[in-house]
Amino acid sequence: MLKIKDAVCKVINDVLSEDGRTLESTADETKLSTLGLDSMSMARVIVTLDDECKVAPFTQGGVDVTSIRTLGDLYRAYSLSPGEGAKDSASVEADVVLAADVVPSSVRATHAKDILLTGATGFLGSHLLDELLNQTDAVIHCLVRADDANAALTRVAKSMERRGLPLGDRLRRVRAIVGDVSQPRFGLSVKEYEELASRIGVVHHCAAWINFLYPYTTLKPSNVVGTEEALRFACVGRTKPFHYISTLGVFCGLQHARATVSESTPVGSCGPMALGYEESKWVAEQLVVEARRRGLPVTIYRTPFLTGHSATGAWDATDLYRLMLEGCIQMGAAPDWDHEMAAVPVDCASRGIIRLSLQESSVGKIFHMSHPAPITWNYFVKQLDSHGYPLRLVPIAEWLRMLLGAIDRREPNALAPVRPLFTPNAEDGKTILDRLARDRVAILGCEQTQADLKAHGVGCSAFTPELLVRYAARAVGEPARR
């Protein structure tokens, strides 16, 4: 067996290479958050390391890793003493303290000719960039982790091309800034930071580390500290309107079960959140709300799961619902979940967010970018079954046994690389999917948001059978069936 650190670096590099990237540094303190590993990519790293090291630490409860060293240390510890996982005892709510220096000035930016966008290379971020270029004449400055400006711009352009959103002539209105939102001053020099702050008139903060496997403490630097840094930037020099991408997951605590939550429903205390990711976004949103109290012009957009583009079906290959589609089609069976899918096509969400962001009346508001006519998972499956994709609904426990059995037999399945998401937790026997669906039945209202969108001429594509079949076809890499 390879030495554990060598194994960690090799596996990470292999996963990055699938997206045309490499592991630039194997230094112990290389932060995992800087590598762009989302939940699905990280799950592929984990399942491979589980096989290599013959242990599975991520099924034992809360674990906390932030770097190559700590990931290696985790597997080394379990290799020596299996089953002894460190527990996360951090107090999430105690982190809702916005730094005292994050205070907007009395001078407000008077133009939006230059816009800062964080998270531009992500799934939603790419579509936000597309809409900002389509709906405004502004120059869009994208904060990107890269070695230099050329590499940063190339990364932005490739992420757009990969999602069917080529920049073309619009590239002249895109600026790539090498930086890291979680670092003081974004990692820029004092001069660079002040010059950028004097130029930017609006901030769109979309950057977040979306990872369903990691605990709160691991995600805090990217999602909480990063948000505070973005808020601080919005207050430097002229006060800049701040548009924040949150998640409907802030309502996923058990205190909201069976309740209808609207845009005006108080989020309340953090409560027993299901995922560390949601906890990190809950804290981050509270910081944004505090900045609003201090006078920063803030608009919050809570997004649900994002499905593929409504016209092309283009959908990130690492998205959970997309992988579920492909994996279920490969098995010919799907879990019997009669739960409402909190999802919306990514282009509908991004178009609505940018249109709302351009309205002065949106300042101070919270919007729910959920679908006005959601469907259930079972409806989705039945539509595919009747349109050429044979699928039978089976009880969840049976489906999990089928899936894990298929993976154990090495049968081809899109869900094999993300097996940790389906492995029961040692503490309560529940899987990530239990936490994402069965345990959480809040009804997500969006009436006010839809009224505002309608007033500004923005609609949302229906989840028609044709669109659902288009999604399935893209998931399995074939032409859509009629």
Give a structural overview.
The chain is α/β, with parallel strands linked by helices and 482 residues long. A 7-stranded parallel β-sheet has the order 3-2-1-4-5-7-11, sandwiched between helices. Strands 6-13 form a two-stranded parallel sheet. It is built from 15 helices and 13 strands. Helix 9 packs across helix 15. The model is unreliable at 59-63 and 80-90 (pLDDT under 50). The chain is globular, with a radius of gyration of 22 Å.
Short description:
This protein is an alpha/beta fold. Helices cover 40% and strands 11% of the residues.
Break the fold down into its secondary structure elements and pairings.
Elements: H1 4-17, H2 39-53, H3 68-80, E1 114-118, H4 123-135, E2 139-144, H5 149-162, E3 174-178, H6 190-199, E4 202-205, H7 216-235, E5 242-247, E6 260-261, H8 276-293, E7 298-303, E8 305-307, H9 320-331, E9 333-335, E10 343-345, H10 346-357, E11 366-368, H11 377-385, E12 392-394, H12 396-408, H13 432-438, E13 443-444, H14 447-455, H15 465-476
Parallel strand pairs: 1-2, 1-4, 2-3, 4-5, 5-7, 6-13, 7-11, 8-10, 9-12
Helix pairs in contact: 1-2, 1-3, 4-10, 7-8, 9-15
Output the number of helix runs: 15
Structural class: alpha/beta
Please state roughly what percent of the residues sit in beta strands, choosing from under 5%, 5-15%, 15-25%, 25-35%, 35-45% or over 45%. Answer: 5-15%
Instruction: Give a quick account of the main beta sheet: strands, pairing sense, barrel closure.
Output: 7 strands, parallel
Task: Report the principal-axis shape.
Answer: globular
Radius of gyration: 22 Å
Low-confidence stretches: 59-63, 80-90
Order of helices and strands: HHHEHEHEHEHEEHEEHEEHEHEHHEHH
Q: Between the first and last Cα atoms, what is the distance in angstroms?
A: 50 Å
Widest β-sheet, arrangement of strands: 3-2-1-4-5-7-11
Number of strands: 13
Quote the average pLDDT. Answer: 86
Q: How helical, in percent, are the residues?
A: 25-40%
